[in-house]
Amino acid sequence: MVAACRAFVAVSGHGSFTSGAAAAGIPQSVASRRIAALEGHFGARLFDRSSRAVRLTSFGQDMLPTARRLVDLADAMTDDVERARLRPLQVAVPETCPAPRLAALVVASRRHRLKLEVRPAGPQERDRLCQALEVGAGILAVPEAAASWRVPLGLAARTPFPAATVFLETLRRGRARTQARRRILIQPEDDLAHLRDPLTRAGQSAGLAPAQVTVAPSLVDAAAKALSSPDLLLCSRQQAEDFGLHWCPLAEPRLVRGYDIAAGLREDLEQLRTVLHSDIARCLGATT
């Protein structure tokens, strides 16, 4: 019906089957068949073909405005479809994701006809944004067992570590009271019960002072302390490399950031989990 009306409108506007078909981008024979089919459907002629010139019948004049509206609506729908395909999908992402890797993620999403807009936020804020439907999707912090992406954590320091793993017992203050206590700084991204609590309990069992395991106000603040003091930053290997720190895994406890996707639409959820899985892993510094 839309194709036939488009041919009808084009021919009536040009007064010729040849010119009208060319304007509609179809062969003249196709335009003639479509208009004939439309006339058969209506049970009345749209054009008077008794002379060289193509003239509308009185019935055709009455039907032309409606046909134009149908064609205009079809064109508007096509435009809406294209806009819907390119609709921006706002995704709440961890603040720890480096900007260059986020930019690469956005570029990768466009190859899959998905236009991402990333919104960095802390773990609690990402939860809130998803629950309030202020974003279309979010990369949420979850325990390792429920994760689609996993990021092993360790300690980072300005000087190399003497062993392949760090034992918390080695951070106890010695008999010399002048010896500074090396603190473990937890960044806000890891200020979660399933990461913070096991580390705090392990520190107590190893004989560390309560103040030796502490939450920093921000990642920048924690990294600055690790760069300028003996303090240690709890972080991923990628973060340690970005800050120019030496990284070493913990012997105990084994700490792993876990991430999963929450999305309002199943289609968005599947695309983020599947076609963009490796690109998201690079942003998070996750193991593959």
TrEMBL record:
One Pfam entry name: HTH_1
Cellular component terms (Gene Ontology): protein-DNA complex
Keywords, sorted A to Z: DNA-binding, Transcription, Transcription regulation
PROSITE patterns (UniProt xref): HTH_LYSR
InterPro entries attached to this UniProt entry: LysR_HTH_N (IPR000847), WH-like_DNA-bd_sf (IPR036388), WH_DNA-bd_sf (IPR036390)
Transmembrane parts of this sequence: none
Example GO molecular function: DNA-binding transcription factor activity
Domain (HTH lysR-type) ranges: 1-57
Family label: Belongs to the LysR transcriptional regulatory family.
Protein name: DNA-binding transcriptional regulator, LysR family
Organism (species): Micromonospora sediminicola
